[in-house]
Amino acid sequence: MAKKVEKDLNKDEITKEIISDIKKELTETKKTLKNEIINEIRFEANTVVKDDIKEQLIIDVGNEIKDSIRREQKNIIRSKNFKIFRKNIFILILLAIIVYFGYCLWDVKYFWFMKDNKTTTKEVSKKIEEKEEVVKDKAWYIENYGYLLDDMKLDLSYDNPNIYYLYTNNFDKSNIKDTIKLNLAYKFISDKHETDYNYTIYEDDMKNAYIKLFGSLDNYNPTSFTVGCMQFYYNGNDRLYTAYKFTCDSSNPLHIKEEIKDMYEDNGKIIIETVMGVYSDYKYLFNYSNLYNAVAIDFDESKSVLDYEDNLNTYKYTFNKNDNGYYFESIEKTK
Fold first, then answer.
1. Closest CA to 203 of 194, 193, 213, 218
2. Within a 13 Å sphere around the CA of 327, how many CA atoms are in the beta-carbon half?
3. Which of 77, 158, 188, 262 could form a disulfide with 209 if both were Cys (CB 3.0 to 4.6 A apart)?
4. Per residue in 298-327, is it b (16+ CB within 10 Å) or e — as a string?
5. Which of 203 and 23 is assigned the larger pLDDT?
6. How far is CA 307 from CA 17, 261, 275, in A?
7. What is the model's pLDDT at position 183?
8. Long-range contact set of residues 295-298: C-beta below 8 Å, sequence gap at least 24
9. How many CB atoms lie within 10 A of CB 192?
10. What residues contact 186, with CB distance under 8 A and at least 6 apart?
11. Residues 6+ apart with CB under 8 A from 214
12. Residue 47 DSSP SS3
């Protein structure tokens, strides 16, 4: 009986030992399988991600290459279009030049089939020169040099007796009063320094203006002068002209009207012949030397003083030429 009990005990121990070994082996097998499964999953995941990244990179690179090609194609097309446009413009200009000279040659009958046997090359050249020659008549001189007479207009109030100064005698830059010459030169000064209360002119600017009108600084003499109703005072120490702002309050109804009777060139000098009269707001026309007896009683701005020349004064202006243009030389009272 004792042997049977011992045998049963040995059997139980062996069974437990076997079960323990089986559990241990299962645990190790489970752990091994788990690690293998995890590694397999990681390998698959890495493989998929790499493939996805690789595929995306291929797509991105392809798109970038396509975009670069498109941009380059656009640049090439734009450059090509500009060259074509420039070439077309050049061709059009050449065609216009060819057409123009063709018309000129046709107009003078340059081609042999258009002229008779008596026509020579010299005659053709002469016709071309005659066609291009400018007719320098009174209208041409007024259009191109009429501003010279405007340069001689005084900027003074009609209440100022000097308004008629230049019409009283024969003058040149040697005998015109200094105040009058500076008044005339004033319109050529572009750099007038202005404040809320006054104007200031540097003497160098006045000298440059004087040269523009009279051609040189001969007979230039700095002094105080009037423009409009403003008095410019000369400061010799600072070499400045200064005028305080002043608004003219003149109710004088008189106005000067001077018109060009003739204008021409003589020995390189521009000659302007004029007629001058004074008219009022009440439609009276006067000779400036007698503002009491009217020459006409129905005169207004729309009418011409040339029609009343017999009863008005006439003048002859002469402008000499230098390298920079024409400058004032003299005024002659002719009647």
1. 193
2. 18
3. 188
4. ebeeebebeebeebbbbbbbbbeeeeeebb
5. 203
6. 152, 10, 10
7. 96
8. none
9. 13
10. 155, 209, 225, 227
11. 173, 181, 185, 220, 327, 328
12. helix
Show Cβ contacts of residue 256 under 8 Å, excluding neighbours closer than 6 positions: 163, 164, 276, 277, 278, 288
Please answer whether residues 255 and 280 qualify as being in contact, where contact means their C-beta atoms are separated by less than 8 angstroms. Answer: yes
For residue 157, the 8-state DSSP code is -
Q: Indicate if the pLDDT at residue 59 is higher than 90.
A: no
Q: How far is CA 42 from the centre of its chain?
A: 75
- Show the tokens assigned to 215: 């051609």
Amino acid, res. 266: D
**Range of lowest pLDDT (125-134, 222-231, 315-324):** 125-134
Q: Which one-letter amino acid corresponds to residue 127? A: K
Lowest pLDDT segment from 8-12, 22-26, 118-122, 204-208: 118-122
Neighbours of 198 (CB within 10 A): 15
Written as one string, the DSSP assignment of 73-120 is HHHHHHHHHHHHHHHHHHHHHHHHHHHHHHHHHHHTT-SGGGS-TT--
Q: Could you tell me the two tokens for 65?
A: 């290459």
Q: Which residues are CB-contacts of 233 (< 8 A; sequence separation ≥ 6)? A: 224, 241, 242, 243
What residues contact residue 210 under an 8 Å CB cut-off, 6+ apart? 181, 182, 185, 188, 217, 220
Of the ranges 66-70, 86-90, 106-110, 123-127, the best mean pLDDT one:
86-90
Angle between helices 203-214 and 178-186 (to 10 degrees): 90
- Give CA–CA dist 23/33, Å, rounded: 15
Q: Return d(Cα 114, Cα 106) in angstroms, integer.
A: 8
First to last CA, the chain: 181
The backbone torsions φ and ψ at residue 118, rounded to the nearest 5 degrees and listed phi first, read -85, -15
Closest CA to 160 of 179, 139, 137: 179
